[in-house]
Write a structure and sequence with these properties.
Radius of gyration: 17 Å
Number of helices: 5
Distance between the termini: 29 Å
CATH architecture: 3-Layer(aba) Sandwich
Number of domains: 1
Largest sheet: 11 strands, mixed
CATH superfamily: Nucleoside phosphorylase domain
Structural class: alpha/beta
Length: 264
């Protein structure tokens, strides 16, 4: 049985494969009913809080977006006791004023994936989880304050469209998403965010803009994404290190009660 005293989980995205701030880290293997997690989970401490870190794509970035074992990852974090998840990821921009190197504290999403296992309630009991406001408002508010205090360029809200991947969008798709009013595009937010809500874990996406999507008449380059991510990792570390000590032990958000009106 895994210990259940971990407070905060970090799911590292592209460019973040190591537990960047955790002290006294130990790698743990958590068995789940949904198979293996993306990798071993590093558990350690920062500023007196117990933290779990898992690289979303594996430490060698060997798992493509559409094959990420999100159910196993979220289940494992829940088994460790995690109540809050911080989720950094790389995204492309669909807006002129959302620029490379800036952060977006996402508050809404549109799902354009297909066939990804996206619920823990596949039978026996029905759950209609609400994702009207899918991110944790309490965590977002804390991150907004931290980003302002640090002077890190960021947007305090944004709509994220999650595409299936692993291919990038066509120009026609990119222009369509812009017309829908979407701000950023990525491949990993869903179903993580919905699964976290089903197990009443707070979830805040911290999206890092790496490039303009192809609406801007410039092909998306993997090299460009990695290069921008590497430059942004230091800012993410600063933001995390500044924010984690501010996260209170007691949750006042509605995430902790997400199942109350969802189960039939």
């Amino acid at each position: 049985m895994a210990e259940k005293d971990v407070e905060i989980g970090i799911i590292g995205g592209t460019g973040m494969y190591d537990p960047v701030i955790i002290k006294e880290a130990e790698d743990k293997k958590v068995y789940t009913p949904f198979g293996r997690t993306s990798d071993l989970i590093s558990v350690g401490f920062y500023e007196g809080k117990k933290i779990a870190f898992i690289p979303r794509h594996g430490r060698k970035h060997q798992i493509p977006p559409h094959k990420i074992p999100s159910k196993a990852n979220i289940w494992a974090l829940k088994e460790l006791g995690v109540k809050r998840i911080i989720s950094p990821s790389a995204v492309g921009s669909l807006r002129e004023n959302y620029r490379a190197g800036e952060f977006v504290l996402v508050d809404q999403f549109i799902d354009r994936t297909a066939g990804r296992p996206d619920t823990f309630y596949d039978g026996g009991q029905v759950c209609h989880i609400s994702t009207a406001d899918p991110t944790c408002s309490e965590l977002r508010t804390i991150f907004v304050k931290s980003a302002r205090e640090l002077g890190i360029p960021f947007h305090n809200k944004g709509t994220y469209i999650c595409i299936q991947g692993p291919r990038f969008s066509t120009r026609a798709e990119s222009r369509l998403f812009r017309a829908w009013g979407v701000d950023v595009i990525g491949m990993t937010l869903y179903p993580e965010i919905a699964l976290a809500r089903e197990v009443e874990i707070c979830y805040v996406p911290v999206a890092m803009i790496t490039d303009y999507d192809v609406w801007a008449e410039k092909p998306v380059s993997t090299d460009e994404i990695i290069r921008t991510m590497e430059m942004n990792v230091d800012n993410f570390k600063k933001l995390i290190m500044h924010t984690i000590p501010k996260i209170p032990e007691v949750r006042k958000c509605s995430c902790k009660d997400a199942l109350k009106e969802a189960l039939l």
